[in-house]
Design brief:
Blueprint lengths: L8 H4 L7 H8 L1 H12 L9 H31 L4 H20 L2 H9 L1 H8 L8 H10 L6 H26 L3 E5 L2 E5 L1 H6 L6 H15 L2 H25 L6 H6 L4 H13 L1 H15 L22 H15 L1 H12 L3 E2 L11 E3 L7 E3 L6 H19 L12 H22 L2 H37 L6 H16 L19 H5 L5 H20 L4 H9 L6 H7 L7 H24 L1
Parallel strand pairs: 3-5
Antiparallel strand pairs: 1-2, 4-5
Helix pairs in contact: 2-4, 3-4, 3-5, 4-5, 7-8, 9-12, 12-20, 14-26, 15-20, 15-26, 16-17, 16-18, 16-19, 18-19, 19-23, 20-21, 20-23, 20-26, 23-26
The protein binds zinc ion.
Length: about 600
């Protein structure tokens, strides 16, 4: 096998910024929108035959695909080199074209609204349109939240002001830098660097990283500014809830995630009932670390300083061996990605941080990594490659129903991390395995419990402001601490008192996408359910699992999962996952006795 560790974008897109085909692609965007407008303006609202809707979607999907090719290419180039001026300029130009094109297409949602619920539902239930059922049902369901043309226009204009507020927060927090003294040397660090010190094996460095974060976020100026920005965003959300007639403050998010209100409420409630598991983990960890008292800055501590290294070849070998055991198609697709230059593996100057997978209808998936030989990096290979395979398996769906909601999107990737951990486990010494379990539990609590803690905080704030209360950062600090203590059950001592607890202001999601965090928790819980089934049924479950992935966004999560025997409206679904976590906690507690 020949390893191609750099993206080969030329093979799939354009030869470079000056490729005339790229220019032609961008120049075609506006005419495409105009052609579509000419064909469908004043027509959508008169649709009477399913064949018309079929043709509409075919045209719409073709237009979207062609419009997106240059844009995705530029976004890949930018990921490889975020500082490249020529790319940034080209992107800027492209954005202007997109704004103009989208203003030509504003008529679409209004005309669907005029067509009305009954008509759209009759299309949704027509066998000719079976492939589009889910998108039509969602369209029909959401009509009641769409206001008139004039109101929508005004709200759209007004939303720019909110964009300014959110942009202000981003710019402000991006401008923050953090001072820290390590071994007598003063250093200035970025947000990402200072946060990464929270996993340092050195307790004093962990403590200082928190102190340094707080020195900036707890300043009166930051608190007043971020507090007002947050209150402003929540007020705007509340007015949207009122104007559009949603039943609860969380309903706009639940609607976009295609989850029923009752399901989301149950998710919150069941995870909160399992909070004592977190206390048990903390208590065991305290003993393993040999600490008298457990501070908040000990939460992400490693158990030891040893760290096993995995070269990319070794990491990939582990991934491929896992795939081979699971399913041939998964294995083949992984190999194909690696051989044809669709995984960009190593860090480079200016390359985007972190990792992602990207797929779109009609095209192969791409993965970006920043591989640094850590055990964590091996999990990231698996995580992102499964996103990529999910994207590949969904290709059988129509583009309009290709993307799955986030609650299903994370399922594939985390499932694979579970498979991989079983493989890795065999490669590790006893000491290394302890660390591995510690990290795995830390991850589980971070991706399920802590996300629910965020959302519980958000719900309190949103409900209070919706009811007309005026809140300031003092209230946010206090509420945040109360939700933290609720989760940690008094087992954690905080480095500052509740008055000075500014943790909420460090979480971008609560500003940028209210309530979004619960989808991570849901996705993770679903993985436990799927994995549990796989352990019981083995290979027999693989086809069922692949069917879930093949469905893309063509079904609501509740219906899709019900078809495969998972009832997400039942508390048992959540409790089973909590039991799996408890098993790991028991194993972790066992390490204390061995010690
Ligand atoms: Zn992911």
């Amino acid at each position: 096998m020949t390893l191609q560790t750099n993206w080969n974008l030329t093979k799939y897109f354009f030869t470079g910024l000056d490729d005339p085909r790229l220019k032609a692609n961008i120049d075609a965007i506006l005419p495409l929108a105009e052609t579509f407008e000419k064909k469908y303006h004043n027509i959508i609202k008169t649709f009477s035959l399913p064949e018309q809707v079929l043709e509409y979607y075919a045209d719409y999907e073709k237009m979207s695909h062609e419009m997106g090719t240059g844009s995705i290419y530029l976004s890949y180039l930018q990921s490889l080199d975020t500082q490249n001026d020529a790319v940034i300029k080209k992107m800027g130009g492209l954005e202007c074209v997109f704004i103009e094109a989208s203003s030509k297409l504003l008529f679409i949602s209004q005309e669907w609204k005029e067509l009305g619920y009954e008509k759209i539902m009759s299309f949704a239930n027509n066998p000719v349109l079976a492939d589009y059922k889910n998108v039509l049902v969602s369209k029909a369901d959401n009509l009641r939240y769409v206001l008139g043309e004039r109101e929508e226009f005004v709200l759209n204009e007004k939303s720019r002001a909110l964009g300014v507020v959110e942009g202000l927060r981003e710019e402000l927090t991006n401008s923050y830098s953090f001072e820290i003294e390590i071994n007598g040397v003063k250093k200035t660090m970025t947000d990402e660097e200072i946060r990464s010190l929270r996993t340092s094996p050195n307790r004093e460095i962990r403590r200082k990283s928190y102190e340094s974060l707080r020195a900036v976020y707890n300043s009166k100026q930051a608190q007043i500014t971020l507090g007002n920005i947050y209150a402003g965003i929540v007020k705007d959300w509340a007015s949207d809830v009122k104007l559009r007639g949603y039943n609860t403050v969380m309903e706009p998010r639940n609607t976009s995630e295609e989850l029923e209100n009752e399901v989301v409420d149950m998710l919150l409630q069941e995870v909160q009932s399992a909070y004592p598991l977190f206390s048990r983990f903390i208590e065991a960890k305290r003993k393993l670390l040999g600490l008298e008292t457990f501070y908040n800055y000990d939460t992400s501590a490693p158990l030891s300083t040893i760290e096993k290294e995995f070269s990319f070849e070794d990491g990939m070998k582990l991934h491929l061996a896992t795939m081979k055991d699971f399913d041939q198609e998964f294995y083949d697709y992984s190999v194909d990605m690696l051989e044809s230059g669709r995984i960009d593996v190593f860090p480079k100057f200016g390359k985007r941080n972190g990792a992602f997978a990207s797929s779109r209808p009609g095209e192969p998936s791409f993965v970006l990594l920043n591989y640094t030989n850590k055990l964590r990096d091996v999990s990231v290979i698996s995580h992102e490659l499964w996103h990529a395979i999910h994207g590949h398996l969904s290709q059988g769906q129509k583009p309009a129903v290709y993307d799955s909601p986030l609650s299903l999107a994370e399922t594939a990737s985390i499932f694979n991390e579970m498979l991989l951990s079983e493989k890795i486990r065999k490669e590790l010494s006893q000491e290394e395995y302890k660390e591995f379990l510690n990290e795995k539990l830390s991850d589980t609590f971070a991706t399920i419990f802590r996300q629910i803690q965020y959302v519980a905080f958000e719900r309190r704030v949103h409900e209070a402001i919706f009811a007309g209360q005026e809140l300031t950062y003092h209230d946010f600090n206090r509420m945040w601490r109360e939700e933290q203590v609720r989760m940690t059950g008094g087992k954690v001592i905080y480095d500052v008192d509740a008055e000075n607890e500014s943790g909420w202001s460090m979480i971008p999601h609560i500003f940028a996408s209210p309530f979004y965090c619960y989808a991570y928790a849901f996705g993770n819980i679903l993985v436990f359910a799927l994995y549990n089934r796989y352990q019981k049924e083995g290979q027999g479950f693989v086809e069922s699992y692949k069917d879930i992935l093949r469905s893309g966004g063509s079904k609501r999560p509740k219906d899709l999962l019900a078809e495969h025997g998972f009832d997400i409206t039942s508390p048992k679904f959540y409790r089973d996952a909590m039991e799996e976590i408890e098993k790991m906690v028991v194993e972790f507690e066992g390490l204390v006795r061995e010690k």
